[in-house]
Design brief:
The complex is a heterotrimer of chains A (352), B (71) and C (252). In chain A, the strands form 3 sheets. A 7-stranded mixed sheet of chain A has the order 3-2-4-5-7-6-13, sandwiched between helices. A 5-stranded mixed sheet of chain A has the order 10-12-11-14-15, sandwiched between helices. In chain A, α9 crosses α12 (340-351). By secondary structure, chain A is an alpha/beta fold. Chain A has helices spanning 9-19, 34-46, 57-69, 80-96, 122-126, 144-161, 171-175, 219-237, 257-272, 290-295, 313-321, 340-351; strands at 4-8, 24-27, 50-53, 74-78, 100-106, 137-139, 164-170, 177-181, 209-210, 241-244, 251-254, 277-282, 284-286, 302-307, 327-331. Chain B is an alpha+beta fold and 71 residues long. Chain B has one domain: Alpha-Beta Plaits, CATH 3.30.70. In chain B, 14% of the residues lie in helices and 23% in strands. Chain B has 2 helices and 4 strands; from the N terminus they run βαββαβ. In chain B, the strands form 2 sheets. Chain B has a two-stranded antiparallel ribbon. A two-stranded antiparallel ribbon of chain B has the order 2-3. Chain B starts with a strand and ends with a strand. By secondary structure, chain C is of the alpha/beta class. Chain C has one domain (24-249): Rossmann fold. Chain C is 40% helix and 20% strand. Chain C has 11 helices and 10 strands. In chain C, β8, α8 and β9 form a beta-alpha-beta unit. In chain C, α1 (24-38) crosses α8 and α4 (94-100) packs across α5 (102-110). The termini of chain C are far apart. Classes of the chains: A alpha/beta (352), B alpha+beta (71), C alpha/beta (252). Chains A and C meet through α3, α4 and β9 of A and β2, β3, α3 and α5 of C. β4 of chain B pairs antiparallel with β1 (2-5) of chain C, so a sheet runs across the interface.
């Protein structure tokens, strides 16, 4: 029998981080991810690893910067307003090519918004988020199991590319309880073995510097082009997507995270009614699985994008269809949850 | 007896060494260095006692201080 | 003849970009000498700030990183907690440490992080063109206080070192200056103690160095020395602000 334990999404992120080799965690309280920081306060100490409740999200991400700089696998977690504060540090980490894992348990915005689950930070996560010209891998779990798995794997991806990785979940997933299969061994953790760029004292080698200020003529452009090649490699190798029932579908629902769960239910109900509905669930929001969208533009009558926002991912779907297939949108914002009945109605209306 | 060696390329002519030399053995050169400063110049008249005050105040760490062996 | 004073090993041969008479070069050298004397060059990690000293990594001959503006204490915290046996220090200006990074400074001190901070106070933002710093003196003219700092509008010069001394977590705080050979030698002694404290696991140590910025003050390098004496020291008095070693012995 598989070893499964009932876990809350926030706890699963923490445990996934630990199994991913997290050596240092820095957090700051914010709802709806407080259980995560509390979980790490206990577990990191049990495992004799570094835990600090920082004085702010700014400090927390810069502690991640410091820990990563000396070779540790480091993580910070927060929710939307706190993630905005972390953007400064994330941009510096990208500039300095420092790996790290940042988890966003999204809540309603803008501003202080509310504490309900939401998906309003898609643009922020997939377009870099901070200042400058950069991208990050963005992983979007849709279950507590994936909260665990993707956080664990995020550490490998971060080390593989020397670039921060974002896990973009939401308050509903954070609070949800589901059984989780615990994987003790990290299959890819060999990446951390060859960190020949860290600052750990210059014993037996020349001093190193890690910086993002590149003032010489053309130096920053050269650096950014190098980073650009890295983003290209990510685009080529790291796209993850779940599809279902696309073979005979007339309409494909597109949703990520908790919205995808709603899409799955809507698909079932529609199928029971004899409507041929399929599903595209991006697991990486960046790089976006544009290929699977593009491949289906001729076969499908339409895409219907479901989000808990005013419509953000829908833009990526439209870009991927390149005008060759109609793209519809249904979303709820400010903590509202898309309703299954409404989704089915929209599908029926599209096919009329 | 001692002496100092001034790295005139690094010197920015701030004069801090000039004013602190207890024996007034440093002055600014009339020539310009590559950066456009009048660098400090050592007046080697055998009176330098290697006190190092010039070194202590040099913001460019452009001064080396040498001391003669004890006789 | 024997060489008795020359560039320390912990300083690279590179010419610094600081203005003529700037105090940064002296403070860089003092840190480098202390690191040489303590034999810790190969286990030291420096954190450079944003500001004039952003290029410090070019001048120090050991591992150096550069933090976002105001964040060096947080970066140093991350480093030190992961590698407690390394020597970690930050080098920060007044804007970095006492304006944008006040929270990071105060909380690193309050946690008693076992790090060393060298805080260079010259009362202005040099790199960006001589704007008001948190430590700018009352009536001091800067490019953003063209009529002089008016406390009714812009508040007072912040005595952050005294404030940090009030925190239980800080171990050693001293204010020094580099405006004369005698003061420079004293400054080195303080910097050395701040590093030794870390090596001995005593905790948070900070040395504030009143340093010359002749360009932004509108004076020549020699006048800048007097400027410190006459204008800065009366507001920022020199001396030990806190030393738990001395308090324990009843000497402070």
């Amino acid at each position: 029998m598989e070893n499964r334990i009932l876990m809350q999404g926030n706890h699963a992120v923490g445990e996934g981080g630990l199994q991913g080799g997290c050596q240092a965690y820095f957090g700051y309280p914010i709802t709806p991810q407080n259980e995560l920081t509390q979980y790490m306060a206990k577990r990191m100490v049990e495992e004799r690893k570094v835990f600090i409740q920082a004085e702010s999200e700014l400090a927390a991400i810069n502690m991640v910067f410091g820990a990563s700089l000396v070779g540790a696998r480091a993580m910070t977690t927060s929710s939307s307003p706190g993630i905005s504060l972390k953007q400064e540090g994330i941009s510096y980490m990208v500039g300095c090519e420092l790996p790290g894992v940042i988890v966003n348990i999204q809540r309603g915005g803008p501003g202080l918004g509310n504490i309900a689950g939401a998906q309003g930070d898609y643009f922020q996560a997939t377009r870099g988020g901070g200042h400058g010209d950069y991208y990050l891998i963005v992983l979007a779990p849709d279950s507590v199991q994936e909260m665990y798995d993707l956080t664990r794997e995020a550490f490998d991806l971060a080390d593989k590319y020397r670039n921060p990785v974002i896990v973009l979940a939401d308050g509903i997933l954070g609070q949800m309880l589901e059984p989780v299969k615990i994987v003790k061994k990290n299959p890819m953790s060999n990446f951390s073995a060859k960190k020949d760029w860290i600052l750990d004292g210059c014993k037996g080698r020349k001093p190193r510097m890690v910086r993002s200020l590149l003032m010489g003529e053309g130096v920053l452009e050269e650096h950014n082009l190098k980073l650009g090649k890295k983003y290209e490699r990510m685009r080529k190798s790291e796209v993850r997507v779940e599809t279902d029932n696309l073979e005979d579908a007339e309409v494909a629902l597109v949703g990520y995270g908790i919205s995808a769960r709603i899409c799955k239910e809507a698909m079932e109900i529609a199928r029971q009614k004899g409507i041929k509905v399929g599903l595209v669930r991006p697991i990486t929001l960046w790089p976006f699985p544009e290929k699977v969208i593009a491949e289906n533009v001729d076969r499908l009558k339409a895409f219907l994008v479901i989000e808990m926002s005013l419509g953000q991912m829908v833009e990526d779907v439209r870009l991927a269809t390149n005008g060759k297939c109609p793209v519809y949108f249904y979303g709820r914002t400010g903590g509202g949850i898309p309703e299954v009945d409404v989704i089915v109605e929209r599908i029926e209306k599209i096919l009329k | 007896m001692g002496k100092i060696i001034i790295n005139i390329e690094q010197c920015k002519g701030c004069k801090l060494c000039v004013i602190f030399c207890p024996k007034q053995l440093i002055k600014l050169s009339e020539k310009l260095n590559p950066a456009g400063y009048h660098p400090a110049e050592f007046i080697d008249n055998g009176q330098c006692n290697s006190c190092g005050l010039c070194y202590q105040m040099c913001p460019d760490v452009a001064i080396e201080v040498w001391k003669g062996e004890k006789r | 003849m024997k060489k008795i004073f020359s560039r320390p090993e912990s300083l690279t041969a590179k010419r610094n970009i600081y203005c003529s008479g700037c105090g940064h070069g002296i403070v860089h050298r003092l840190i480098a000498e202390v690191i040489d004397e303590l034999g810790i060059r190969e286990k030291t990690i420096g954190v450079a700030p944003v500001g004039c000293a952003v290029f410090a990594y070019d001048y120090w001959n050991f591992d150096v990183t550069e933090a976002a503006h105001g964040r060096p204490p947080a970066v140093a915290t991350g480093i030190k907690r992961v590698l407690p046996d390394r020597v970690v220090f930050t080098y920060q200006g007044d804007g970095d440490l006492a304006a944008i990074g006040t929270a990071e400074t105060v909380h690193a001190a309050n946690r008693g992080e076992n790090i060393t901070i060298i805080f260079v106070n010259n009362g202005v933002y040099g790199m960006t063109g001589g704007q008001m710093a948190p430590t700018t003196l009352i009536a001091q003219k800067t490019t953003t206080t063209p009529l002089g700092r008016d406390p009714k509008i812009a508040g007072y010069p912040i005595k952050i070192s005294e404030a940090l001394g009030q925190l239980e977590g800080s171990v050693y705080i001293e204010r020094v200056t580099v405006n004369s050979p005698k003061n420079t030698i004293k400054a080195k002694r303080a910097i050395k103690k701040a590093f030794q404290n870390q090596i001995q696991n005593k905790g948070f140590s900070l040395v504030e160095v009143l340093s010359m910025c002749p360009i932004a003050w509108g004076v020549n390098p020699v006048e800048a020395l007097k400027w410190i004496e006459q204008k800065m020291i009366p507001v920022f008095p020199l001396g030990v602000i806190k030393d738990k070693d001395l308090t324990a012995k009843g000497n402070l």
